[in-house]
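Re: folding output
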Amino acid sequence: MPQMTGGAGGGPDQTQIDRALRSGSGPIVNAPPAVLVLIAILIGIQAAIQWAGKDWETWSFYAFALIPARFQGPEATTMIEGSQYWSLVTYAFLHDGWLHVLFNSIWLLIFGTPVARQFGTLRFLLIALVSTLGGAIAMLVLFWGVFIVAVGASAAVSGLLAAAIPIMFGGRAGPLSFGEFLRDRRAMIFMVIFLVMTLLSSVQWLPTFADGARIAWEAHLGGFIAGLIAYFVVSRRGVRHG
């Protein structure tokens, strides 16, 4: 939206409002380019897979989805050599249908925006990467050797949500420090609400994105913890203001 300066009474007068509305100079989506590009990549990959057909979708999951059984070796499941390692990251770029990718894109826009604004592109992407790995590690710890297929950017989104909490509840002095975060009642309530919703998502009668699919709440939780840790580690090295 167009930015407006305050009038004599502390707020914009009608003339300023009318001028701003006529100018149309503000961006349609006021989010950092890194967030918008990442969303475009997720949607573009989903569109390409859908256009290519079922066989390509099956191959994409075979090559890039997170499957804990891969780590038991080729004797446990057929796989492309090395896919057990790159799938720790690439699983985040695949989704189980349009509803899945659109939900993740919306939450990425909401919670990725304050993180990208606070830290800039590289550290925003670093937090997203660490969160993705955190979600993958949580799945491996809990499902080691099990043949399940995990896809989606939810772990990265959960980590960015965690990183956004100290930013959103910080004051004029800047984001919350670790001590302030632990003492801030609003931040704690927000975190508890997220954790409760994450655990409730494990209830089997809740709607799923596709028949037979379940929400990988373990990856959400792993991504959240990893993202929160990454935020405080990154923030100790300086914060970009502006």
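--- second protein (sequence, then structure) ---
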Amino acid sequence: MASTTVLITGANSGAGLAATKELARASPTLHIIMACRSLKPKQQKAAAHIEQIFGRLDVLVNNAASGSGDPDVKTRFSLCLETNVTGPAMVAAALRPLLLKSANRYSLYISSGQRTLVRNATQRPPTHSLHLQNLDAYMVSKAALNMLAGLKVFVVSPGFVRSNLRGTSEEARSGWGQAGDPEAAGELILSVVQGKRDGDVGSLVHADGVYPW
């Protein structure tokens, strides 16, 4: 049986690590490439290496992200937009030629269901956000990420899960005791990779359906 090559950025914690574990357990034909550091300085070398070893890329999971509560507006916006928008766009551009070599290609952007125009206009901020300061940059970056598209694209909302995104202290990783198990996010990503959510292609998907844009 032909193998499926999957690259996951930000695979060292949170939803990325959970997705890596779920996919690796699901099938021996899923070959997972864990990208645990920024690909930006070496994107072309990474693409060349993947092409040399595997010949193509079947699934790209753009998961790496960062939050910032820096009191300086420029600093926190620069970090969030560069990491959460520019980074995924550059990674997608560098690896798109390899995705186009796949007969069944998937491109996933791990975003946030909280950051859609409809939901943002009709709901109060989630309780966990009250523990964070200066969320504006992160919110804007995820709204911008939701607009990226191409190939067989899914924007995925993994939910509020344990992650290094908010910091490395136990308090931050656990979302002040409110973050869920990232395994659920891994299961959601696996369902997309397995084609179970193909009816929702082009949508912002979550475990129980899709969010309106």
